């Protein structure tokens, strides 16, 4: 087995920064009690201003001003770890969050699908960079050794036990992940490298040092397996972005929205599912959240399309109050069946399939703006159509016009010429919308052909009900 | 007269353009389904991947019968036809009678700029066979957008407009005027050829 360890050195900072439009502005993360706020993490721009982790906020404010601050949120870090584990689950069936801020992946069994390690690694790095997470990757035959190697350098790889031994032997004792007191004791005894530790007799090591030391050394060399809890992906997607200020315009919501939909698409791709219905919650300071339901006619997972659709719905929404946070929740994740596409398409310029176009139109114009047309086996014109396409057996009938008027109009013209008729339509006594009409094909003086009727028994003007066009 | 040039040599050298020659190869366009119209249009039919304008005075003068054969052959071959903001409800029985497969027909209700936007999206996507739009007010610029969208998506575009627009210039590749009294069809512009001087009798019923 080969284990890859992906270390996320700035997980908290990356997690906060990916929701900000400008990553170059200085940003610090704060921790500690309200009386004594301490800088926990700083980004490169803030570091350039002379800020360092461990400084107090007061000291930082005397050094500079106008630095953006955010809370160092442990719950958020946990959420990002879960999100990245879900992402890694797309590459390996064995993903573990055993070490904090680290992903452990078993990669040997994935090499058959993702190609040789060099290509696989390039893909992992490209996707992590696209998700805006800094990372270091190392590979070793056991997870503990991979964790130690990733501390030493980025991109290290030990493909077998012998090579691992060569790489581990010269490592200084400080880098092995032993506790501080044990490390100090070794150093005072003059033992600087792992090689020297391994040369010691085991029984004396066991006698002088806690049991964990020997256990850790055995795990590193692969003689003792490490028990890992493996990651199980969640069944719902629920991600929330807290905005750094109150947002009142749609425009400012688009950036977090793009992140959310991209995350949703990444999550769906890992599960090989699509999304058909999801909810966007806009959280306000007071009152209930504004909820925007996005429904699609078929399961989709293309990030660009999900963003465009949600944007279309969002722009139609009135914001009753400033927005503090945006949350995207998807509970129905049906199986995604990619569309069949022919190798030799008849029209090569076809760049957007009808299903996508239909969703775009519905998103901007509303759900009811787009419909089909179907016939119903009914003689009454107003009941002879419906919005869903059907294929019923139609009864034989006289000539029918191409246009049907939604409301019949009285025809006042004196010089109407009756071309044919009457055709009696008498139906509907069973559903209370009984009609008894005589229909005529008429021609106006201007040459238009109409379809007009007069209710049996009345002697008013002819009512125009359609145009032969 | 210093030299005498034989006429056929001049023509063979392609230095003289002859007005009556149709520039696009015949049969390349989409047949209208009406023989009398195919015979006069350059390329023998609707210009492909371009906008055609149909200018009418009033409903009920054959404006649908003009297009029904085209729509029927498109829908039967599985192409989608989109109607954008039609003035009335299409009566399904009549459309089925004309041979149109209703399963391939979609109707979009929108007005003003949304209708133009929808028409442009449908044309540009390339997933429709034909897009018919009824534009209440369309200026030169929006028609040009539709024309470009039709060329991008390789789609037949039809725009129904009132006849008063006939005097205004238009970027459409083909402009037809439907007269009701007498029932006739006038071609006032066709790209790639000269419009016929005489109106064409159009017995649509």
Q: Can you characterise this structure?
A:
The complex is a heterodimer of chains A (469) and B (205). With 469 residues, chain A is α+β, with helices and mostly antiparallel strands. Chain A folds into 3 domains: 3-26 and 67-221; 238-332, Dna Ligase, domain 1; 381-468, no CATH class. Chain A has helices at 11-17, 44-48, 57-63, 74-88, 111-114, 117-130, 143-152, 161-168, 180-188, 194-199, 202-208, 211-221, 250-271, 303-315, 354-365; strands spanning 3-7, 27-31, 38-42, 68-71, 95-96, 102-106, 136-140, 156-157, 237-247, 275-284, 290-300, 323-332, 370-371, 374-375, 385-386, 403-410, 417-427, 435-443, 449-455, 463-468. A 5-stranded mixed sheet of chain A has the order 5-6-1-7-8, with helices on both faces. In chain A, a hairpin with a 7-residue loop joins strand 17 (417-427) and strand 18 (435-443). The model of chain A has no long low-confidence stretch (mean pLDDT 87). The model of chain B is unreliable at 21-27 (pLDDT under 50). Chain B has an 8-stranded mixed sheet. The termini of chain B are far apart. With 205 residues, chain B is of the alpha/beta class. Chain B has a single domain (30-201), classed as Rossmann fold, CATH 3.40.50.300. In chain B, helix 5 (113-125) runs parallel beside helix 6 (140-153). At the A-B interface, helix 15, strand 13, strand 14, strand 16 and strand 20 of A face strand 3, helix 4, strand 4 and helix 5 of B.
Q: Give the chain pair forming the largest contact, with residue counts.
A: A-B, 47 and 50 residues
Strand content of chain B: 15-25%
Sheet with the most strands of chain A? 5 strands, mixed
Largest sheet of chain B: 8 strands, mixed
Number of helices of chain A: 15
DSSP E strands of chain B, number: 9
Q: Mean of residue pLDDT of chain A?
A: 87
Low-confidence stretches of chain A: none
Structural class determined from secondary elements of chain B? alpha/beta
Helix content of chain B: 25-40%
Which series of helices and strands of chain B comes N to C?
A: HHEHEEHEHEHEEEE
> What kind of assembly state do the chains in view correspond to?
heterodimer
């Amino acid at each position: 087995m080969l284990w890859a360890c992906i270390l996320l050195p700035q997980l908290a900072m990356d997690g906060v920064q990916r929701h900000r439009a400008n990553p170059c502005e200085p940003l610090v993360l704060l921790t500690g009690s309200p009386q004594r706020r301490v800088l926990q993490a700083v980004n490169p721009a803030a570091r350039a201003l002379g800020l360092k982790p461990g400084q107090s906020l007061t000291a930082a404010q005397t050094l500079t001003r106008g630095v953006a601050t955010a809370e160092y949120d442990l719950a958020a870090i946990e959420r990002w770890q879960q999100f990245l584990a879900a992402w890694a689950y797309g590459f390996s069936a064995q993903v573990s969050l055993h070490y904090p801020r680290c992903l452990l992946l078993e990669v040997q069994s994935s090499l058959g699908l993702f190609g040789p390690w060099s290509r696989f690694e390039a893909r992992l790095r490209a996707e992590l960079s696209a998700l805006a997470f800094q990372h270091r990757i190392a590979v070793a035959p056991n997870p503990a050794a991979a964790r130690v190697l990733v501390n030493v350098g980025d991109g290290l790889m030990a493909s077998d036990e012998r090579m691992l031994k060569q790489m581990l032997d010269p490592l200084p004792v400080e880098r092995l992940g032993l506790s501080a007191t044990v490390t100090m004791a070794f150093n005072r005894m003059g033992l600087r490298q792992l090689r020297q530790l391994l040369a010691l007799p085991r029984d004396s090591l066991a006698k002088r040092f806690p049991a964990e030391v020997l256990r850790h050394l055995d795990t590193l060399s692969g003689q003792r397996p490490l028990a890992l809890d493996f990651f199980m992906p969640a069944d719902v997607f629920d991600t929330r972005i807290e905005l750094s200020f109150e947002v009142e315009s749609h425009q400012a919501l688009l950036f977090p929205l793009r992140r959310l939909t991209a995350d949703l698409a990444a999550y769906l791709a890992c599960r090989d599912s699509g999304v058909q219905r999801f909810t966007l919650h806009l959280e306000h300071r007071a009152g209930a959240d504004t909820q925007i339901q996005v429904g699609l006619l078929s399961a989709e997972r293309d990030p660009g399309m999900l963003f465009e659709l949600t944007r279309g719905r969002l722009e139609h929404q009135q914001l009753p109050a400033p927005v503090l946070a945006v949350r995207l929740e998807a509970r129905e994740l049906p199986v995604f069946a990619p569309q069949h596409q022919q190798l030799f398409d008849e029209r090569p310029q076809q760049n957007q399939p009808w299903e996508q176009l239909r969703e775009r139109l519905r998103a901007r114009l509303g759900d009811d703006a787009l419909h089909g047309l179907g016939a119903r086996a009914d003689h009454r014109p107003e009941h002879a159509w419906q919005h869903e396409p059907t294929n019923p057996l139609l009864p034989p009938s006289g000539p029918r016009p191409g246009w049907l008027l939604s409301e019949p109009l009285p025809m006042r013209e004196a010089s109407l010429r009756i071309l044919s008729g009457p055709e009696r339509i008498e139906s509907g006594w069973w559903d209370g919308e009984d009609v008894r009409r005589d229909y005529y094909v008429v021609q106006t003086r201007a040459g238009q052909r109409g379809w007009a009727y007069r209710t049996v028994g009345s002697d008013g003007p002819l009512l125009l009900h359609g145009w032969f066009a | 007269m210093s030299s005498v040039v034989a006429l056929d040599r001049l023509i063979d050298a392609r230095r003289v353009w002859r007005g009556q020659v149709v520039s696009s190869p015949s049969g390349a366009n989409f047949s209208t389904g009406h023989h009398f119209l195919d015979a006069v249009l350059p390329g023998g039919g609707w210009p492909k991947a371009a906008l055609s304008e149909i200018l009418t005075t009033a409903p009920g003068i054959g404006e649908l019968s003009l297009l029904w054969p085209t729509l029927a052959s498109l829908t039967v071959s599985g192409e989608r036809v989109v109607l954008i903001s039609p003035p009335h409800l299409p009566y399904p029985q009549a459309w089925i009678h004309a041979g149109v497969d209703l399963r391939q027909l979609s109707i979009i209700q929108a007005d003003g700029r949304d209708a133009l936007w929808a028409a442009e999206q449908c044309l540009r996507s390339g997933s429709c066979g034909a897009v018919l739009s009824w534009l209440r007010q369309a200026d030169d610029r929006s028609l040009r957008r539709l024309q470009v969208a039709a060329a991008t998506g390789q789609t037949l575009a039809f725009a129904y407009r009132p006849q008063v627009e006939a005097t205004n210039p238009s970027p459409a590749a083909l402009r037809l005027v439907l007269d009701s009294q007498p029932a006739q069809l006038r071609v006032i512009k066709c790209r790639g050829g000269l419009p016929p001087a005489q109106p064409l009798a159009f017995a649509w019923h």
